[in-house]
Amino acid sequence: MPTYEYECQRCFHTFEQFQPITAQPLKNCPKCDGPLRRLIGKGGAIIFKGSGFYATDYRSEEYKKRAKEESGGEKKKAEVEKDSGKAKADSGSESKSTKS
């Protein structure tokens, strides 16, 4: 439930009232029974500051180390495959030239 801020138009008393969204706005000041107006609030925005708000922020050092090794291993594997592809292509061109 949100907290609404009210101000009395007669005595300028301001206060906050915790009420459901579906509730009607208050009409009378609790101090002087004067007319109230509901103020526009700042909102209840949540501000996340610092670390710890993403899943990766809580990873252990061991997990980070293993992930780094695995990603490095994948890069090395791709490089080896690329190099072996070049070697096959080179050997294929050599075999063609030797046949002629």
Key terms for this structure?
single chain; 100 residues; alpha+beta
Explain how this protein is built.
There is one protein chain. The protein is of the alpha+beta class and 100 residues long. The protein is built from one helix and three strands. Strand 1 and strand 2 form a beta hairpin. The longest helix is centred in the last third of the chain and has 39 residues. The radius of gyration is 35 Å and the shape is rod-shaped. The termini are far apart.
Which helices and strands appear, and what pairs or packs with what?
Layout lengths: L2 E6 L5 E5 L17 E4 L21 H39 L1
Antiparallel strand pairs: 1-2, 1-3
Brief digest:
With 100 residues, this protein is α+β, with helices and mostly antiparallel strands.
Shape, per Cα inertia axes: rod-shaped
Structural class by helix and strand composition: alpha+beta
**Estimated share of beta-strand residues:** 15-25%
Low-confidence stretches: none
Mean pLDDT: 76
Largest sheet: 3 strands, antiparallel
Let me know the number of strands: 3
Helix share, percent: 25-40%
Number of helices: 1
C-alpha-based Rg, rounded: 35 Å
Give the topology string: H per helix, E per strand: EEEH
Question: Distance between the terminal alpha carbons, to the nearest Å?
Answer: 86 Å
Oligomeric state, counting identical vs distinct chains: single chain
* Lateral strand order in the biggest sheet: 2-1-3
